[in-house]
Amino acid sequence: MEILPIPAESFKVGFIGAGKMAESIARGVVASGVLPPNRIFTAVHSNLNRRDVFESFGVSVFSNSEDVVKESDVVIFSVKPQVVKKAVMELRSKLSKNKILVSVAAGIKLKDLQEWSGQDRFIRVMPNTPAAVGEAASVMSLGTGATEEDGEIVAKLFGAVGKILKADEKMFDAVTGLSGSGPAYIFLAIEALADGGVAAGLPRELALSLASQTVLGAATMVSKTGKHPGVLKDDVTSPGGTTIAGVHELEKGSFRATLMNAVVAAAKRSKELSQN
Protein backbone atom coordinates (compact mmCIF):
# COMPACT_ATOMS: atom_id res chain seq x y z
CA MET A 1 0.00 0.00 0.00
CA GLU A 2 1.39 3.39 -1.04
CA ILE A 3 1.90 5.87 1.78
CA LEU A 4 0.24 9.17 0.97
CA PRO A 5 2.03 12.36 2.04
CA ILE A 6 0.35 14.41 4.74
CA PRO A 7 -0.78 17.78 3.36
CA ALA A 8 1.64 20.20 5.03
CA GLU A 9 -0.70 23.18 4.68
CA SER A 10 -4.01 21.57 5.62
CA PHE A 11 -3.33 18.62 7.90
CA LYS A 12 -5.54 17.85 10.88
CA VAL A 13 -4.43 16.72 14.34
CA GLY A 14 -6.20 14.49 16.83
CA PHE A 15 -5.33 13.84 20.45
CA ILE A 16 -6.06 10.50 22.09
CA GLY A 17 -6.25 11.71 25.67
CA ALA A 18 -7.52 15.10 26.79
CA GLY A 19 -5.19 15.82 29.70
CA LYS A 20 -2.89 18.72 30.49
CA MET A 21 -0.18 17.80 27.97
CA ALA A 22 -2.68 17.51 25.11
CA GLU A 23 -4.20 20.82 26.17
CA SER A 24 -0.80 22.54 26.32
CA ILE A 25 0.17 21.35 22.84
CA ALA A 26 -3.23 22.20 21.36
CA ARG A 27 -3.20 25.68 22.90
CA GLY A 28 0.32 26.32 21.64
CA VAL A 29 -0.51 25.15 18.13
CA VAL A 30 -3.54 27.47 18.02
CA ALA A 31 -1.80 30.46 19.62
CA SER A 32 1.19 30.23 17.26
CA GLY A 33 -1.02 29.99 14.19
CA VAL A 34 0.33 26.59 13.14
CA LEU A 35 -3.24 25.28 12.90
CA PRO A 36 -6.68 26.81 13.36
CA PRO A 37 -8.68 25.17 16.17
CA ASN A 38 -11.20 23.67 13.73
CA ARG A 39 -8.45 21.30 12.50
CA ILE A 40 -7.75 19.94 16.00
CA PHE A 41 -9.75 17.15 17.64
CA THR A 42 -9.91 15.17 20.86
CA ALA A 43 -12.37 12.91 22.64
CA VAL A 44 -13.82 13.20 26.13
CA HIS A 45 -15.81 10.26 27.44
CA SER A 46 -17.20 11.54 30.74
CA ASN A 47 -15.21 14.48 32.18
CA LEU A 48 -17.32 17.45 31.11
CA ASN A 49 -14.80 19.89 32.55
CA ARG A 50 -12.13 18.69 30.08
CA ARG A 51 -14.66 19.00 27.26
CA ASP A 52 -15.35 22.61 28.26
CA VAL A 53 -11.60 23.39 28.42
CA PHE A 54 -10.94 22.25 24.84
CA GLU A 55 -14.11 23.73 23.42
CA SER A 56 -13.27 27.07 25.07
CA PHE A 57 -10.51 27.65 22.49
CA GLY A 58 -12.32 26.09 19.52
CA VAL A 59 -11.17 22.46 19.49
CA SER A 60 -13.75 19.91 18.33
CA VAL A 61 -14.49 17.34 21.03
CA PHE A 62 -15.94 13.94 20.13
CA SER A 63 -17.41 11.35 22.46
CA ASN A 64 -15.18 8.54 21.21
CA SER A 65 -11.58 8.16 20.05
CA GLU A 66 -12.51 6.36 16.83
CA ASP A 67 -13.94 9.59 15.43
CA VAL A 68 -10.77 11.44 16.38
CA VAL A 69 -8.64 8.97 14.41
CA LYS A 70 -11.02 9.06 11.44
CA GLU A 71 -10.82 12.86 11.16
CA SER A 72 -7.08 13.25 11.76
CA ASP A 73 -3.93 13.05 9.63
CA VAL A 74 -1.70 13.15 12.72
CA VAL A 75 -2.80 11.14 15.77
CA ILE A 76 -1.06 11.99 19.05
CA PHE A 77 -1.35 9.46 21.87
CA SER A 78 -1.21 11.70 24.93
CA VAL A 79 -2.17 9.24 27.65
CA LYS A 80 -0.37 7.87 30.69
CA PRO A 81 2.32 5.25 29.97
CA GLN A 82 0.41 2.48 31.74
CA VAL A 83 -2.59 2.82 29.41
CA VAL A 84 -0.82 3.45 26.09
CA LYS A 85 -0.93 -0.20 25.03
CA LYS A 86 -4.67 -0.43 25.70
CA ALA A 87 -5.36 2.84 23.86
CA VAL A 88 -3.32 1.83 20.81
CA MET A 89 -4.67 -1.72 20.66
CA GLU A 90 -8.29 -0.55 20.89
CA LEU A 91 -7.76 1.74 17.88
CA ARG A 92 -5.54 -0.62 15.89
CA SER A 93 -8.15 -1.38 13.23
CA LYS A 94 -8.67 2.36 12.61
CA LEU A 95 -4.97 3.23 12.23
CA SER A 96 -3.46 3.21 8.74
CA LYS A 97 -0.24 3.97 6.91
CA ASN A 98 -1.80 7.24 5.76
CA LYS A 99 -1.64 8.68 9.28
CA ILE A 100 1.36 9.89 11.27
CA LEU A 101 1.19 8.34 14.72
CA VAL A 102 2.85 10.07 17.67
CA SER A 103 3.37 9.04 21.29
CA VAL A 104 4.40 11.33 24.15
CA ALA A 105 4.31 8.56 26.77
CA ALA A 106 7.53 8.28 28.77
CA GLY A 107 9.34 4.95 28.66
CA ILE A 108 7.29 3.38 25.85
CA LYS A 109 9.57 2.27 23.02
CA LEU A 110 8.92 2.68 19.30
CA LYS A 111 9.21 -1.07 18.66
CA ASP A 112 6.34 -1.69 21.10
CA LEU A 113 4.22 1.13 19.68
CA GLN A 114 4.75 -0.23 16.18
CA GLU A 115 3.91 -3.78 17.26
CA TRP A 116 0.74 -2.78 19.10
CA SER A 117 -0.51 -0.54 16.28
CA GLY A 118 0.56 -2.73 13.36
CA GLN A 119 2.02 0.46 11.85
CA ASP A 120 5.61 1.69 11.58
CA ARG A 121 4.85 5.33 10.74
CA PHE A 122 5.28 6.23 14.40
CA ILE A 123 7.21 9.09 16.00
CA ARG A 124 8.09 9.17 19.68
CA VAL A 125 8.31 12.56 21.38
CA MET A 126 9.56 13.31 24.89
CA PRO A 127 8.26 16.76 25.94
CA ASN A 128 8.43 18.21 29.45
CA THR A 129 6.03 20.15 31.67
CA PRO A 130 7.11 23.68 30.61
CA ALA A 131 5.06 22.93 27.48
CA ALA A 132 2.25 24.42 29.58
CA VAL A 133 3.89 27.86 29.26
CA GLY A 134 5.27 27.44 25.74
CA GLU A 135 8.83 26.66 26.86
CA ALA A 136 9.09 22.88 26.47
CA ALA A 137 12.34 21.09 25.76
CA SER A 138 11.17 18.21 23.53
CA VAL A 139 13.09 15.47 21.76
CA MET A 140 11.75 13.25 18.99
CA SER A 141 12.80 9.99 17.35
CA LEU A 142 11.35 8.64 14.11
CA GLY A 143 10.05 5.09 13.72
CA THR A 144 11.14 2.91 10.82
CA GLY A 145 8.28 4.02 8.56
CA ALA A 146 8.25 7.72 9.39
CA THR A 147 9.71 10.07 6.78
CA GLU A 148 11.73 13.24 7.21
CA GLU A 149 8.64 15.12 6.02
CA ASP A 150 6.64 13.47 8.80
CA GLY A 151 9.31 14.63 11.25
CA GLU A 152 9.01 18.19 9.96
CA ILE A 153 5.25 18.20 10.55
CA VAL A 154 5.65 16.89 14.10
CA ALA A 155 8.47 19.37 14.74
CA LYS A 156 6.15 22.17 13.65
CA LEU A 157 3.49 21.02 16.12
CA PHE A 158 5.80 20.64 19.12
CA GLY A 159 7.81 23.71 18.12
CA ALA A 160 4.65 25.65 18.98
CA VAL A 161 5.22 24.87 22.68
CA GLY A 162 8.98 25.30 22.92
CA LYS A 163 12.12 23.88 21.36
CA ILE A 164 12.21 20.43 19.74
CA LEU A 165 15.34 18.48 18.87
CA LYS A 166 15.93 15.12 17.22
CA ALA A 167 17.87 12.24 18.79
CA ASP A 168 18.28 8.49 18.50
CA GLU A 169 15.77 6.65 20.67
CA LYS A 170 18.58 4.97 22.62
CA MET A 171 19.25 8.40 24.16
CA PHE A 172 15.72 8.79 25.54
CA ASP A 173 16.47 7.52 29.04
CA ALA A 174 19.19 10.17 29.33
CA VAL A 175 16.78 12.74 27.85
CA THR A 176 14.27 11.77 30.54
CA GLY A 177 16.89 12.21 33.25
CA LEU A 178 17.87 15.66 31.97
CA SER A 179 14.92 17.50 30.42
CA GLY A 180 12.10 15.23 31.53
CA SER A 181 12.97 15.36 35.22
CA GLY A 182 15.09 18.51 35.04
CA PRO A 183 12.33 21.05 35.73
CA ALA A 184 11.98 19.57 39.23
CA TYR A 185 15.69 20.16 39.87
CA ILE A 186 15.33 23.78 38.80
CA PHE A 187 12.20 24.26 40.92
CA LEU A 188 14.25 23.09 43.90
CA ALA A 189 17.04 25.49 42.96
CA ILE A 190 14.60 28.42 42.70
CA GLU A 191 13.08 27.52 46.07
CA ALA A 192 16.54 27.27 47.63
CA LEU A 193 17.66 30.59 46.13
CA ALA A 194 14.53 32.25 47.51
CA ASP A 195 15.13 30.68 50.92
CA GLY A 196 18.66 32.07 50.79
CA GLY A 197 17.26 35.51 50.04
CA VAL A 198 14.92 35.24 53.02
CA ALA A 199 17.82 34.11 55.22
CA ALA A 200 19.76 37.17 54.05
CA GLY A 201 16.86 39.47 54.98
CA LEU A 202 14.56 39.71 51.95
CA PRO A 203 10.75 39.44 52.17
CA ARG A 204 9.55 36.06 50.85
CA GLU A 205 7.62 37.42 47.86
CA LEU A 206 10.53 39.60 46.71
CA ALA A 207 13.02 36.75 47.17
CA LEU A 208 10.93 34.33 45.10
CA SER A 209 10.39 36.86 42.31
CA LEU A 210 14.11 37.61 42.14
CA ALA A 211 15.04 33.92 42.22
CA SER A 212 12.69 32.87 39.42
CA GLN A 213 13.59 35.82 37.19
CA THR A 214 17.30 35.25 37.81
CA VAL A 215 17.03 31.62 36.66
CA LEU A 216 14.96 32.67 33.63
CA GLY A 217 17.46 35.40 32.74
CA ALA A 218 20.47 33.13 33.10
CA ALA A 219 18.87 30.41 30.95
CA THR A 220 17.95 32.97 28.30
CA MET A 221 21.55 34.24 28.18
CA VAL A 222 22.85 30.72 27.56
CA SER A 223 20.21 30.11 24.90
CA LYS A 224 20.50 33.43 23.06
CA THR A 225 24.19 34.32 23.30
CA GLY A 226 25.50 30.90 22.33
CA LYS A 227 28.27 31.32 24.89
CA HIS A 228 29.38 28.40 27.02
CA PRO A 229 27.86 28.71 30.52
CA GLY A 230 31.36 28.55 31.99
CA VAL A 231 32.28 31.69 30.04
CA LEU A 232 29.15 33.49 31.21
CA LYS A 233 29.95 32.44 34.79
CA ASP A 234 33.47 33.86 34.44
CA ASP A 235 32.06 37.13 33.04
CA VAL A 236 30.15 37.79 36.29
CA THR A 237 32.81 36.48 38.68
CA SER A 238 35.07 39.38 39.66
CA PRO A 239 38.36 38.83 41.53
CA GLY A 240 37.71 38.74 45.26
CA GLY A 241 34.06 39.64 44.72
CA THR A 242 30.69 38.48 45.97
CA THR A 243 29.99 35.97 43.19
CA ILE A 244 33.19 33.98 43.58
CA ALA A 245 32.49 33.77 47.31
CA GLY A 246 29.10 32.21 46.52
CA VAL A 247 30.54 29.93 43.80
CA HIS A 248 33.16 28.73 46.29
CA GLU A 249 30.38 27.62 48.64
CA LEU A 250 28.61 25.79 45.82
CA GLU A 251 31.82 23.97 44.94
CA LYS A 252 32.34 22.98 48.57
CA GLY A 253 28.82 21.53 48.54
CA SER A 254 29.51 19.55 45.32
CA PHE A 255 26.76 21.48 43.52
CA ARG A 256 27.79 20.46 40.02
CA ALA A 257 28.46 16.84 40.93
CA THR A 258 25.09 16.61 42.69
CA LEU A 259 23.22 17.85 39.60
CA MET A 260 25.18 15.45 37.40
CA ASN A 261 24.33 12.59 39.76
CA ALA A 262 20.65 13.56 39.73
CA VAL A 263 20.49 13.34 35.92
CA VAL A 264 22.30 9.98 35.89
CA ALA A 265 20.07 8.57 38.66
CA ALA A 266 16.88 9.65 36.88
CA ALA A 267 18.16 8.25 33.57
CA LYS A 268 18.94 4.93 35.29
CA ARG A 269 15.45 4.84 36.79
CA SER A 270 13.91 5.61 33.40
CA LYS A 271 15.77 2.66 31.90
CA GLU A 272 14.55 0.39 34.71
CA LEU A 273 10.93 1.46 34.21
CA SER A 274 11.07 1.02 30.43
CA GLN A 275 12.23 -2.58 30.89
CA ASN A 276 9.30 -3.52 33.14
TrEMBL record:
Pyrroline-5-carboxylate reductase catalytic N-terminal domain ranges (all copies): 12-107
SUPFAM superfamilies associated with the record: 6-phosphogluconate dehydrogenase C-terminal domain-like, NAD(P)-binding Rossmann-fold domains
Reaction(s) catalysed by this chain's protein: L-proline + NADP(+) = (S)-1-pyrroline-5-carboxylate + NADPH + 2 H(+)
Ranges of residues in domain Pyrroline-5-carboxylate reductase dimerisation: 169-273
NADP is among the record's keywords: yes
Membrane-crossing segments per the record: none
Keywords: Amino-acid biosynthesis, NADP, Oxidoreductase, Proline biosynthesis
Enzyme type, top EC level: oxidoreductase
Keyword Amino-acid biosynthesis listed: yes
EC number: 1.5.1.2
Pathway membership: Amino-acid biosynthesis; L-proline biosynthesis; L-proline from L-glutamate 5-semialdehyde: step 1/1
InterPro entries found in the cross-reference section: 6-PGluconate_DH-like_C_sf, NAD(P)-bd_dom_sf, P5C_Rdtase_cat_N, P5CR-like_CS, P5CR_dimer, Pyrroline-COOH_reductase
PANTHER family (UniProt xref): PYRROLINE-5-CARBOXYLATE REDUCTASE, PYRROLINE-5-CARBOXYLATE REDUCTASE 3
NCBIfam families the record matches: proC (TIGR00112)
Family: Belongs to the pyrroline-5-carboxylate reductase family.
Descriptive protein name: Pyrroline-5-carboxylate reductase
Organism name: Camelina sativa (False flax)
